[in-house]
Amino acid sequence: MDQEKEQTKVEINYNLEFDARGLKCPMPVIKVRKILQSLKPGEIILVLADDPGAKRDFPAFCAQTGDEIIKSEEENGVLKFYIKKRTQK
Amino acid sequence: MGENTIQIEGFPAPKNKLRIICFSGDMDKAFAVLTLASTAASMGMDTAVFFTFWGLSLIKKNRKFKGKNLIQKMMEVMMPAGIDSLKLSKMNFAGLGPVLMKVLMKQTKSPNLHDLLEAAKEAGVKFYACSTSCSILGITKDELIDEVQEIVGAATFLSEAKDATTLFI
Q: Distance (Å, rounded) from C-alpha B46 to C-alpha B24?
């Protein structure tokens, strides 16, 4: 039981994964916005991206829309964003 | 300024409204127009593009000669038939430039003008056409893509653009 708890602390559960690798600006943001529209408030999407612009684009996008990046990381040139759909409006 | 606006270091905070005057009918500039419009609308910004003069080529469905006078028919022949036949503002090389550019877009898997136009439509960008440009060139609403909401004048656009970030491309 305790081990399981530890695991959930490190890993974020997400509802959907979207692989935006290979997509160039502005397509990652545009596609993710479309997916976010289909999610319920509070649901989480994991986005993988490798466009160099994405690093700043997703934080800027979320700040504008009100969605929340709960966690972001970079692994071997691949950016990972865990985005939680906004709960209000 | 809503609470959703952001401040990126080194950039002023964006407004929640974007208006673009698309004057140019050049392929390269069309990329700028449609990239910014589709992204802004996706970010939840109230976004509209006002197509005027050569920019009308971006929203033309096809060539139409009926109802146009001789000079307008000549213009129709000389102007691009639509978004697929735009020229580059530099290095056009009699039409070779745009072909090479399309090949490059494909090779680098970058969005082409069609992708961006579709994205803009889907994200809810509003399209307006300039009334005077349309009447000079004899262009009617049925020649333009269905998303064009209205043919409007300068005053309408300006009052629409109040409190908006406005770009002239």
A: 22
Chain A positions touching B116 (Cβ under 8 A) are: 26
Q: Could you give the ipTM of this predicted complex?
A: 0.76
Is A2-84 in CATH node 3.30.110.40?
yes
Cβ pair B119, B94 in contact under 8 A: no
Tell me which residue of B8, B28, B32 sits closest to B20, measured CA to CA: B32
Is B112 in the A-facing interface, judged by CB distances under 8 Å? Answer: no
Residue B96 lies in a domain: no
**How many domains is chain B partitioned into structurally?**
1
Structural domain spans, chain A? 2-84
Tell me the whole-structure pTM to 2 decimals: 0.84
The answer as to whether B150 is a domain residue is yes
- Pairs across A and B, CB distance < 8 A: 51
Question: Can you give the residue range of the structural domain that contains B135?
Answer: 17-71+113-168
Residue length, chain B?
A: 169
Residue-by-residue pLDDT tens, chain B, 169 positions: 444 555 556 555 556 999 999 999 999 999 999 999 999 999 999 999 999 999 999 999 989 999 999 999 999 999 999 999 999 999 999 999 999 999 999 999 999 999 999 999 999 999 999 999 999 999 999 999 999 989 999 999 998 898 999 999 9
Q: Which of B4, B39, B108 sits opposite A66 (nearest CB)?
A: B4
